[in-house]
């Protein structure tokens, strides 16, 4: 499966962000020159008026281009422009006007923030206009064709599916943009089918929040209220709460507050859910149906009482098994996977309900955030029979932890390629054919898996975009990203992973290969260790993340995917209920569609018959539900 071109609607976000970047770049030179010649602390009425006029002009231009791309009539274009004018007025009233002081000037420190906010709201308005006036056909299409061997195959084109798995890259304070980006993905419906979340380092905190039943908006609100600089400290009663379970090295910040925060979030989320009328009954019914075990039910019932964080938390914390059980009954909860690097044995571990069923997710989250020498490493026994180990940041082994999601499918493709090579060396024509079919199937399965997996990486000040979109720079960009202002040879040696640089090159390879299923999270000026950045800097980072997320969401919503199927039964079996209804509602095929120059009457009839068979199979499958 691969993505094919988006319709004009999807370009609105990219075009607006390009406009903003261009204006910012050109005007920035003039502003710096002006500041050097005439230092000032406020924006004059003339400058403000000029900026507002330029802003209005650019929004009007983009709205007009949108109308042209959508092929709107003159009357419809007029309605679109009227709505755009109304939106412009509202944006100016909400952003520029409140900042104007009594002398009609604007504080210069606030001016950039005002313009950024206006640009973000303009992008939201343009995206909304594209949805209101655009009418993209999202019904599935089936196009029969003859392959090189004369066999009839079918290309199936339909909208890309929403994501089922979310993989979050580590990045320390750069994670400030995660919440803002996720809110836009959620609004666009990209996360409505989400079932599992995977995270490393800073991504672990985000993953834990979402897996614990938080919506994207709830997570953003939580993140906005959390002082990330305080997470490196530890509460006074930390040893009383967690000392019986974990130990810490003497080097680095204890970050006990990070552990206790994740403990509070996960525990309170389950408590709040089970406190709602009827929800315990749902758990009991799930247990009776064999979806969860009696032991899991019993442990979850312990969260009916309000969590107490004044004493020992041993045996009272949310485990991977708890979240897995909750996800089977309450869809807002997700399967969770977090990473940790075992510095004792020099190997990467994935913690989830299968490998660490009874491990507290907050401890795993704290392990995953243990940036070597900055945060203290964790001494912990995972109860797998190996005893207590020293654990550091999961990013030491995989900063983009796709292995647990794509690893088996990627290995299947490698094995299939080897089988083709071996058959070719042996001169076995039948073996080559069989191996090639196996390779095609394995590649198709990997493609399907990738299309349902969203990777969230960080902009890294432009390096991620170069990696994703310029294959010629792949090797160089992978190296640059792996360095990330850090000497990974030294960090890897400290953490016990001398192969850390190669691990991060593999991360970069995964980002590059996942193409349109990678969302780049922008983070302004924030870098990995900028935990104490100012409120203004954090706000600018979140706003930039929001604007770029709007662009990604608009593009993703209008992407289509195509796959080749060999039988009508196979085509229909891969339609969802909604897709079946849309396909049948569009009506049966028309023979005239296939009677075109260069196609014989016999071939046209064969293609038409195949299309008609698919339609009738779809009707047959849909009939019981009608």
Automatic annotation (TrEMBL):
Keyword Zinc: no
KW DNA repair (keyword) present: no
Protein origin, superkingdom: Bacteria
Assigned keywords, A-Z: Coiled coil, Hydrolase, Lipid degradation, Lipid metabolism
Domain (PNPLA): residue spans on this chain: 166-406
Pfam family, any one: Patatin
Chain location of the short sequence motif DGA/G per the record: 393-395
Coiled-coil boundaries: 406-452
Positions of short motif GXGXXG: 170-175
Stored PANTHER family: ANNEXIN, PNPLA DOMAIN-CONTAINING PROTEIN
Motif (GXSXG): 199-203
GO molecular function, one term: hydrolase activity
Record's protein name: PNPLA domain-containing protein
Active site: 201, 393
GO terms under biological process: lipid catabolic process
